[in-house]
Amino acid sequence: DKKQRLGLKSWLKDCYLRRFLRPASGVFGIGSRACDAYRRFARTDRPVLNLPYAPNLSKLLLPSLARMNLAKQWRAQWGIDEPLVVVFSGALTHRKGPDVLLESFAKLSPDFTRLRLLFLGDGPMRSQLTKRAEQLGVSDRLRMPGFLEGDELHAAYLSADLFVLPTRTHEGWGVVVQEAMAAGLPVIATALVGSGAD
Fold it and tell me: Pseudo-torsion of CA 95, 101, 178, 76, nearest 10°?
């Protein structure tokens, strides 16, 4: 049933895009993945242009001393020297795959004792993730501060060592990838994350 619903949803989306884009004089897409998808539906003699998505990342690219001190406080909360912090930022939903990250984290934890996991965001999977972390014996290595913004969000990014976004289904862009990279983090993301290609 779920597979059929997803197939129907995809077919309807394709029909809509074809009808909407076919007569267009040109198309703007955000990211190369979107442009590639739109090219399938637009007339071949019409331009499809990649419109860069550029949020203001200056506070991550050039963090203030106060923000760096706040990042140090985030790292200190783990209570160990030199933690290796993996961060996820986004809605705690099935689509974003935080459970995939938690399961992978638990498998690596015995061999990497300094490894810690930071879930930034909130959503319907929060209690399920908390319960599963207890079952896996990694709840002491997991922090879930909820939805953050501004200085707190920036400091959390700056306190981490690696960013992971294990999205299960197509994600149009994913600005969190840009935020993580602006904070100097290496990024692991699935091929379904639009910004991952760019």
Answer: 130
Question: 111 CB contacts (<8 Å, ≥6 apart)?
Answer: none
Question: Which of the four pLDDT bands, split at 50, 70 and 90, describes residue 2?
Answer: low
Distance from the Cα of residue 73 to its chain's centroid:
23
**Alpha-helix residue ranges (DSSP H) falling in the chain:** 2-21, 32-39, 58-61, 65-76, 98-108, 126-136, 150-158, 175-182, 194-197
Helix or strand run (H / E) with residue 191: none
pLDDT of residue 37: 85
| Confidence class for position 3, pLDDT limits 50, 70, 90 | low
d(CA 56, CA 184): 15
DSSP letters, 84-141, are: EEEEEES--SGGG-HHHHHHHHHHHTTT-TTEEEEEES--TTHHHHHHHHHHHT-GGG
In whole angstroms, what separates CA 147 from the centre of its chain? 14
What single letter denotes the amino acid at residue 117?
A: L
What is the enclosing helix (H) or strand (E) of 30? none
Residue 68 has pLDDT above 80, yes or no: yes
The structure's pTM equals: 0.87
